[in-house]
Specification:
This protein is of the alpha/beta class. The chain is 43% helix and 16% strand. The strands form three sheets. The chain has a seven-stranded mixed β-sheet with strand order 2-8-7-6-5-3-4, with helices on both faces. Strands 9-10-13-12 form a four-stranded antiparallel β-sheet, with helices on one face. Helix 7 links the parallel strand 5 and strand 6. The two termini are 25 Å apart. Bound molecules: pyridoxal-5'-phosphate. Pyridoxal-5'-phosphate (PLP) binds next to helix 3.
């Protein structure tokens, strides 16, 4: 019988804190589609200020934030956007920019650290001479932190260089900053500096910051005016969103400071998984590069999926109440958030050891 649950599937699984629930209950609200919700207005102004941009807009999800941003920058038919082949927009957002927006994606290989080589980005920009045949490049997208690359941070210097390239070619730069606060904390760089070169940024409040719902997009006033219209088109115009913004406000005020501790625990986790793996008498079970753990995510590869597959490991762990997510046939990930204690981490690690022994024993008995 499961007596304890340690949910490491994602940082989206946090439950609203008491302070968030209290703020939601007492939020001053009105109809935001009519532009009248005072809590939403205050929250958006604060987000614009923190991000160093002219204006901000609350949207229901990170996916909608990215979609709206891409569509605003690519409003002319036949537009193309350059993005990482392993980016969230490309891999996990249902191809919405193409299916809904008619925008053509052009991928460039992501390096293991989440960057794309600048010369490769430049080579991917369509030459205007080919306009009779080619789509027109209008936008470059970066992701910070880069989730599929293990939550790695993209530096301000790299972002600036991509911004310069974009300007040189008359393009815009959008950042999927679902976890930009994790990057800011890990790098020790203010968030507005990290996104200085970007024309727009989408920020999730419902990831490591722990709000129950919502993302914010930021950019110029003109960008946000167009974004607001698209939000309505996509069905994302909602009425008394002050309730959600009140919780997001608490997330902003109380939870940014907790991210550093999440990163510390993720490092402990990575290092201890290696110790467990080494300590078992079977062959080493996992490969994890602990030094590449920069924020709150730990991806590890199983050494031999025919002995231990990510799916079998996650299923067996589930029986102990430890929830993790397979990410491919050879890898799985755990994500730390502020509702995971150090005790939870030690419990999860004990369960991993037990799960491995169980799986290996069943395998031998077969
Ligand atoms: C990097 C990144 N961008 C965007 C999103 C989309 O956010 P949402 O799930 O709120 O649509 C996610 C979700 O996990 C993400 O990890």
């Amino acid at each position: 019988m499961v007596t304890r649950t340690v949910d490491l599937r994602s940082d989206t699984v946090t439950k609203p804190t008491e302070a968030m629930r209290a703020a939601m209950a007492s939020a001053d609200v009105d109809d935001d589609v009519l532009g009248a919700d005072p809590t939403a207005q205050r929250f958006e102004e604060e987000m614009a200020r923190i991000m160093g941009k002219e204006a901000a807009l609350f949207v229901p999800s990170g996916t909608m934030g990215n979609l709206i941003s891409v569509l605003v920058h690519c409003e002319i038919r036949g537009s193309e956007v350059i993005m990482g082949d392993n980016s969230h927009i490309h891999v996990y957002e249902n191809g919405g920019i193409a299916t809904i927006g008619g925008v053509h994606p052009k991928t460039v290989e992501n390096n293991p650290d989440g960057t794309m080589d600048i010369d490769r980005i430049e080579a991917a920009i369509r030459h205007p001479n080919g306009a009779l045949y080619y789509p027109t490049t209008r936008l470059i997208c970066l992701e910070n932190t880069h989730a599929n690359c293990g939550g790695r941070c993209i530096s301000a210097d790299y972002t600036d260089r991509v911004g310069e390239l974009a300007r040189k070619h008359g393009l815009k730069l959008h950042i999927d900053g679902a976890r930009i606060f994790n990057a800011s904390v890990a790098l020790g760089v203010p968030v507005h500096r990290l996104v200085q070169a970007a024309d727009s940024v989408s920020v999730c409040m419902s990831k490591g910051l722990g709000a129950p719902v919502g993302s914010v997009i930021v950019g110029t006033k003109e960008f946000i005016t167009k974004a607001k219209r698209l939000r309505k088109t996509l069905g994302g115009g909602m009425r008394q969103i002050g309730i959600l913004c009140a919780a997001a406000f608490v997330a902003l005020q109380e939870n940014i400071v907790k991210l550093e501790d999440d990163h510390r625990k993720a490092k402990i986790f990575a290092e201890m998984v290696l110790t467990i793996s080494d300590g078992l008498k079977e062959i080493k079970q996992f490969r994890v590069n602990a030094s590449s753990v920069e924020t709150n995510m730990v991806f590890f590869d199983v050494a031999d999926p025919s002995v231990i597959s990510p799916v079998s490991l996650c299923e067996t762990l589930g029986k102990f109440g430890v929830l993790a997510m397979p990410t491919s046939s050879t890898s799985l990930r755990v994500v730390i958030h502020f509702q995971i204690s150090e005790g939870d981490i030690h419990y999860a690690l004990t369960c991993i050891k037990q799960a491995i022994q169980e799986i290996v024993a069943v395998g031998i008995a077969k």
